[in-house]
Amino acid sequence: MTDYAADQQGAYVQLDDLVAMRPRASGFSFLPRQPVHSQLAGRHSSRLRGRGLNFEEIRQYQVGDDIRQIDWKVTARTRKTHSRVYTEERERTTLFVVDQRITMFFGSVKQMKSVTAAQAAALGAWRVLAQQDRVGALIFNDSDIVEVRPQRSHSAVMRILHAIVEQNHLLSVKNGTRSNPQMFNEALRRCDRLAKHDCLVCIISDGVGQNEETRHLITRIARHNDVLFGFVHDPLEGELPSAGPLVFEDGQYQLEVDTAQTSLQDRFREDFASSRNRGRQFLLQRETPVIPLSTAEEVTEQIRRGLGVRPR
């Protein structure tokens, strides 16, 4: 199979394709107020905080001022109603943590999970740039982490896309790459050092390798930042097809199972659902919204749907 044929089948991404996604990076927002139909709205999900507010001045109350901003101490002292005035911060940092490990090199319908993650990161980066905010990234595979420092520039987005494409093209089942689940936590540790305060951290991954340390790290990151998790998955991971005896391989070991067994299909489905629900509940408890990203659907519409725009 040639590289071009592999790309056409959704195995790899090309830089030109990620650049061409820029016009499609619209119709969604990382702002705090989410429409009712958003997956992030409701009392069980987080509302992203958006940019912070800077205190500007205290002045006499004017018609139309928010009564919640009345400064009652000054009002009592002067016997005239005064309001506190705030201005929105001019920019905010968004940091993308993009998974390109060998476990992401899997897809059964439309494209690989690694391609879905790359497209989601590209859309997000272009959107952040359009909002005139700073954008950076940590792109990691099973052995390396590439760091792109946050900047508010077109060149910063291009550096992110170049790094994603480079790591994406290294993925192959033939080069002997072994899965390294510990790299997930290593990327989060790097993120914890980089995202100091009031950042939006977008983790785009299948979550392979998550454990107690993962929960501790995400809790620390979310303490002073907003965290948004793009959970990348493939339909085959949640529903085992009835295809008779099949051989599965992880690059190191092989296992033959009879997929036609109803009991095996049920356990497979239940294990995936249980694992996904545990992770989702943990994240929601820390006000971390989750957007499912399926390899079987177009990425742009999934993100628009997740961030509050009705499907076209």
Explain the overall architecture.
It contains 10 helices and 10 strands. The chain is α/β, with parallel strands linked by helices. The chain folds into 2 domains: 242 residues, 3-Layer(aba) Sandwich (Rossmann fold); 36 residues, no CATH class. Helix 4 packs antiparallel against helix 5 and helix 6 runs parallel beside helix 7. The N terminus is likely disordered.
In short, what is this structure?
With 312 residues, this protein is α/β, with parallel strands linked by helices. The protein has ten helices and ten strands. The chain has two domains: 3-28 and 91-306, von Willebrand factor, type A domain (Rossmann fold, 3-Layer(aba) Sandwich), CATH 3.40.50.410; 53-88, no CATH class.
Topology:
Elements: H1 3-8, H2 15-19, E1 53-60, H3 72-78, E2 82-88, E3 93-99, H4 113-130, E4 134-140, E5 145-151, H5 154-169, H6 182-194, E6 200-205, H7 212-224, E7 226-233, H8 235-238, E8 245-249, E9 254-258, H9 262-285, E10 290-294, H10 299-306
Parallel strand pairs: 3-4, 3-6, 6-7, 7-10
Antiparallel strand pairs: 1-2, 4-5, 8-9
Helix pairs in contact: 4-5, 6-7
